[in-house]
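Whiteboard transcription, Tuesday session. T.W. wrote the C-alpha coordinates on the left side:
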Protein backbone atom coordinates (compact mmCIF):
# COMPACT_ATOMS: atom_id res chain seq x y z
CA UNK A 1 0.00 0.00 0.00
CA UNK A 2 1.04 3.63 -0.38
CA UNK A 3 1.32 6.32 2.28
CA UNK A 4 2.65 9.88 2.17
CA UNK A 5 5.92 10.35 4.06
CA UNK A 6 6.86 14.02 4.31
CA UNK A 7 4.37 14.59 1.44
CA UNK A 8 6.11 12.06 -0.81
CA UNK A 9 4.52 8.77 -1.83
CA UNK A 10 6.07 5.74 -0.14
CA UNK A 11 5.15 2.11 -0.67
CA UNK A 12 5.00 0.14 2.58
CA UNK A 13 3.96 -3.34 3.64
CA UNK A 14 0.26 -3.97 4.30
CA UNK A 15 1.07 -4.62 7.96
CA UNK A 16 3.26 -1.53 8.41
CA UNK A 17 2.89 0.53 11.57
CA UNK A 18 3.67 4.15 12.33
CA UNK A 19 6.62 3.48 14.65
CA UNK A 20 7.88 0.74 12.35
CA UNK A 21 8.16 3.20 9.49
CA UNK A 22 9.71 5.81 11.78
CA UNK A 23 12.36 3.40 13.08
CA UNK A 24 13.17 2.21 9.58
CA UNK A 25 13.27 5.58 7.82
CA UNK A 26 14.27 8.18 10.42
CA UNK A 27 14.87 6.67 13.86
CA UNK A 28 16.29 9.95 15.19
CA UNK A 29 12.99 11.80 14.61
CA UNK A 30 11.45 13.01 17.86
CA UNK A 31 8.27 14.58 16.43
CA UNK A 32 5.82 12.27 14.66
CA UNK A 33 2.87 13.81 12.82
CA UNK A 34 0.16 11.33 11.83
CA UNK A 35 -2.68 12.67 9.64
CA UNK A 36 -2.14 16.17 11.01
CA UNK A 37 -1.78 15.30 14.71
CA UNK A 38 1.33 14.90 16.85
CA UNK A 39 1.33 11.38 18.31
CA UNK A 40 3.60 9.08 20.30
CA UNK A 41 1.75 5.75 20.23
CA UNK A 42 2.13 3.16 17.51
CA UNK A 43 -0.81 2.58 15.16
CA UNK A 44 -1.32 0.43 12.06
CA UNK A 45 -1.05 2.39 8.84
CA UNK A 46 -3.72 2.52 6.15
CA UNK A 47 -3.69 3.38 2.47
CA UNK A 48 -3.24 7.13 1.94
CA UNK A 49 -2.16 7.97 5.49
CA UNK A 50 0.09 11.01 5.91
CA UNK A 51 3.20 10.70 8.09
CA UNK A 52 5.76 13.41 8.82
CA UNK A 53 8.96 12.73 10.74
CA UNK A 54 10.74 15.73 12.25
CA UNK A 55 13.91 16.05 14.30
CA UNK A 56 13.92 19.03 16.66
CA UNK A 57 16.79 21.45 16.12
CA UNK A 58 17.47 20.24 12.59
CA UNK A 59 17.00 22.51 9.59
CA UNK A 60 15.57 20.21 6.93
CA UNK A 61 16.69 20.36 3.29
CA UNK A 62 14.77 22.74 1.04
CA UNK A 63 12.99 19.91 -0.75
CA UNK A 64 11.45 18.76 2.56
CA UNK A 65 10.85 22.06 4.33
CA UNK A 66 7.54 22.97 2.71
CA UNK A 67 6.09 19.54 3.42
CA UNK A 68 7.13 19.72 7.06
CA UNK A 69 5.71 23.24 7.42
CA UNK A 70 2.24 22.00 6.46
CA UNK A 71 2.46 18.71 8.33
CA UNK A 72 0.01 19.87 11.00
CA UNK A 73 -2.64 20.73 8.39
CA UNK A 74 -5.73 18.59 8.18
CA UNK A 75 -4.87 16.05 5.45
CA UNK A 76 -5.84 17.21 1.96
CA UNK A 77 -6.02 20.91 2.83
CA UNK A 78 -2.70 21.95 1.32
CA UNK A 79 -3.45 20.32 -2.03
CA UNK A 80 -6.66 22.37 -2.26
CA UNK A 81 -5.21 25.78 -1.36
CA UNK A 82 -1.69 25.77 -2.79
CA UNK A 83 -2.96 26.87 -6.21
CA UNK A 84 -5.42 29.47 -4.90
CA UNK A 85 -5.02 33.25 -5.17
CA UNK A 86 -6.33 35.62 -2.49
CA UNK A 87 -6.39 39.42 -2.71
CA UNK A 88 -6.09 41.64 0.37
CA UNK A 89 -7.02 45.32 0.14
CA UNK A 90 -5.52 47.17 3.11
CA UNK A 91 -2.52 45.94 5.10
CA UNK A 92 -3.23 47.38 8.54
CA UNK A 93 -4.38 45.60 11.68
CA UNK A 94 -6.72 43.34 9.76
CA UNK A 95 -4.91 42.89 6.45
CA UNK A 96 -1.42 42.28 7.82
CA UNK A 97 -2.69 39.65 10.29
CA UNK A 98 -4.84 37.98 7.62
CA UNK A 99 -1.84 37.84 5.30
CA UNK A 100 0.29 36.20 8.00
CA UNK A 101 -2.40 33.58 8.67
CA UNK A 102 -2.86 32.79 4.98
CA UNK A 103 0.90 32.63 4.42
CA UNK A 104 1.28 30.20 7.31
CA UNK A 105 -1.32 27.84 5.86
CA UNK A 106 0.32 28.06 2.43
CA UNK A 107 -2.24 29.75 0.18
CA UNK A 108 -0.53 29.72 -3.20
CA UNK A 109 -0.53 33.43 -4.04
CA UNK A 110 -1.34 36.59 -2.10
CA UNK A 111 -1.99 39.90 -3.86
CA UNK A 112 -1.29 42.64 -1.28
CA UNK A 113 -2.34 46.25 -1.84
CA UNK A 114 -1.87 49.34 0.34
CA UNK A 115 -0.52 52.84 -0.31
CA UNK A 116 0.50 53.70 3.29
CA UNK A 117 3.74 53.52 5.27
CA UNK A 118 4.42 51.96 8.67
CA UNK A 119 4.09 54.51 11.49
CA UNK A 120 4.40 54.15 15.29
CA UNK A 121 0.71 53.85 16.16
CA UNK A 122 0.44 50.88 13.78
CA UNK A 123 2.65 48.78 16.03
CA UNK A 124 -0.02 48.19 18.69
CA UNK A 125 -1.88 45.77 16.40
CA UNK A 126 -0.22 45.41 13.00
CA UNK A 127 2.34 42.81 11.87
CA UNK A 128 5.34 45.10 11.52
CA UNK A 129 8.47 45.91 13.52
CA UNK A 130 10.09 49.05 14.90
CA UNK A 131 12.94 48.89 12.39
CA UNK A 132 10.36 49.04 9.56
CA UNK A 133 8.97 52.46 10.53
CA UNK A 134 8.74 54.72 7.51
CA UNK A 135 8.80 51.90 4.97
CA UNK A 136 5.84 51.14 2.75
CA UNK A 137 3.54 48.51 4.19
CA UNK A 138 3.70 46.47 1.00
CA UNK A 139 7.49 46.23 1.11
CA UNK A 140 7.66 45.61 4.87
CA UNK A 141 4.93 42.98 4.93
CA UNK A 142 6.32 41.10 1.94
CA UNK A 143 9.67 40.94 3.73
CA UNK A 144 8.03 39.54 6.87
CA UNK A 145 5.90 37.04 4.98
CA UNK A 146 8.87 35.67 3.04
CA UNK A 147 10.54 34.94 6.37
CA UNK A 148 7.42 33.00 7.41
CA UNK A 149 6.75 31.09 4.18
CA UNK A 150 8.97 31.53 1.13
CA UNK A 151 6.89 29.01 -0.84
CA UNK A 152 3.96 31.40 -1.24
CA UNK A 153 3.96 33.82 -4.19
CA UNK A 154 3.58 37.47 -3.14
CA UNK A 155 2.44 40.23 -5.49
CA UNK A 156 2.43 43.72 -3.99
CA UNK A 157 1.07 47.05 -5.21
CA UNK A 158 1.77 50.29 -3.35
CA UNK A 159 -1.28 52.14 -4.70
CA UNK A 160 -4.62 53.36 -3.43
CA UNK A 161 -7.51 51.08 -4.36
CA UNK A 162 -10.09 52.96 -6.43
CA UNK A 163 -12.93 51.68 -8.63
CA UNK A 164 -10.88 52.06 -11.81
CA UNK A 165 -8.00 49.80 -10.74
CA UNK A 166 -9.97 47.05 -8.96
CA UNK A 167 -10.22 44.79 -12.06
CA UNK A 168 -6.52 45.12 -12.82
CA UNK A 169 -5.43 44.51 -9.23
CA UNK A 170 -7.82 41.77 -8.21
CA UNK A 171 -9.35 40.32 -11.36
CA UNK A 172 -7.54 36.99 -10.91
CA UNK A 173 -8.37 36.24 -7.27
CA UNK A 174 -10.37 33.27 -6.01
CA UNK A 175 -11.35 35.15 -2.84
CA UNK A 176 -11.15 38.87 -2.05
CA UNK A 177 -10.52 40.32 1.41
CA UNK A 178 -11.58 43.82 2.43
CA UNK A 179 -9.37 45.09 5.26
CA UNK A 180 -9.77 48.87 5.13
CA UNK A 181 -10.14 51.20 8.11
CA UNK A 182 -12.62 53.67 6.65
CA UNK A 183 -16.29 52.94 6.04
CA UNK A 184 -16.32 54.71 2.68
CA UNK A 185 -13.45 52.55 1.41
CA UNK A 186 -15.21 49.42 2.61
CA UNK A 187 -18.40 50.43 0.80
CA UNK A 188 -16.48 51.31 -2.35
CA UNK A 189 -14.86 47.88 -2.59
CA UNK A 190 -18.07 46.01 -1.81
CA UNK A 191 -19.86 48.01 -4.51
CA UNK A 192 -17.28 47.63 -7.27
CA UNK A 193 -15.74 44.19 -6.69
CA UNK A 194 -18.06 41.53 -8.08
CA UNK A 195 -15.94 38.75 -9.55
CA UNK A 196 -15.42 36.41 -6.55
CA UNK A 197 -16.45 35.86 -2.93
CA UNK A 198 -15.65 38.88 -0.75
CA UNK A 199 -14.77 38.66 2.96
CA UNK A 200 -15.19 42.05 4.67
CA UNK A 201 -15.09 43.33 8.25
CA UNK A 202 -17.21 45.64 10.39
CA UNK A 203 -16.95 46.19 14.14
CA UNK A 204 -13.86 45.09 16.09
CA UNK A 205 -12.80 48.14 18.13
CA UNK A 206 -12.38 48.30 21.90
CA UNK A 207 -12.07 45.42 24.34
CA UNK A 208 -15.57 43.99 24.35
CA UNK A 209 -16.22 40.24 24.48
CA UNK A 210 -14.57 38.31 21.70
CA UNK A 211 -17.60 36.10 21.26
CA UNK A 212 -19.65 39.01 19.90
CA UNK A 213 -17.51 38.89 16.75
CA UNK A 214 -19.07 36.57 14.21
CA UNK A 215 -19.56 35.91 10.50
CA UNK A 216 -22.68 36.91 8.61
CA UNK A 217 -23.34 36.10 4.97
CA UNK A 218 -24.99 38.73 2.80
CA UNK A 219 -26.38 37.56 -0.51
CA UNK A 220 -24.57 34.79 -2.32
CA UNK A 221 -20.94 35.93 -2.08
CA UNK A 222 -20.32 38.56 0.65
CA UNK A 223 -19.28 37.65 4.20
CA UNK A 224 -19.12 40.27 6.98
CA UNK A 225 -16.92 39.52 9.99
CA UNK A 226 -17.18 41.50 13.23
CA UNK A 227 -19.87 42.63 15.64
CA UNK A 228 -21.11 45.14 13.01
CA UNK A 229 -21.43 47.82 15.73
CA UNK A 230 -18.18 48.71 17.49
CA UNK A 231 -16.22 51.05 15.27
CA UNK A 232 -13.16 53.05 16.26
CA UNK A 233 -14.06 56.33 17.95
CA UNK A 234 -12.79 58.60 20.75
CA UNK A 235 -12.80 56.45 23.86
CA UNK A 236 -12.93 53.23 21.82
CA UNK A 237 -9.62 52.45 20.16
CA UNK A 238 -8.26 49.63 18.02
CA UNK A 239 -6.10 47.06 19.80
CA UNK A 240 -4.42 43.80 18.88
CA UNK A 241 -6.62 41.26 20.73
CA UNK A 242 -10.02 42.10 19.27
CA UNK A 243 -8.68 43.18 15.87
CA UNK A 244 -6.76 39.91 15.81
CA UNK A 245 -9.90 37.88 16.53
CA UNK A 246 -11.65 39.55 13.61
CA UNK A 247 -8.65 39.15 11.29
CA UNK A 248 -8.30 35.47 12.01
CA UNK A 249 -12.02 34.90 11.57
CA UNK A 250 -11.67 36.56 8.16
CA UNK A 251 -8.72 34.31 7.34
CA UNK A 252 -10.67 31.25 8.48
CA UNK A 253 -13.63 32.29 6.33
CA UNK A 254 -11.28 32.57 3.34
CA UNK A 255 -9.98 29.08 4.07
CA UNK A 256 -13.50 27.65 4.36
CA UNK A 257 -14.48 29.21 1.02
CA UNK A 258 -11.38 27.77 -0.69
CA UNK A 259 -12.19 24.34 0.74
CA UNK A 260 -15.80 24.55 -0.42
CA UNK A 261 -17.18 24.70 3.12
CA UNK A 262 -19.02 28.04 2.65
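and on the right, the sequence the group agreed on:
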Amino acid sequence: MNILLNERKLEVDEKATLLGVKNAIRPEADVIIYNGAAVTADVPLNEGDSVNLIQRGEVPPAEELEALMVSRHTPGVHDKIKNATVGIAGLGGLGSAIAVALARIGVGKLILVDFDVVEPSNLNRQQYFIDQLGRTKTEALEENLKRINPYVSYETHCVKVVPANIPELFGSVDVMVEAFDRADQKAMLMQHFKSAPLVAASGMAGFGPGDTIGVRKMGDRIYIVGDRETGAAPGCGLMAPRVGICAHMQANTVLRILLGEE
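Someone added at the bottom: The chain has eight helices and twelve strands.
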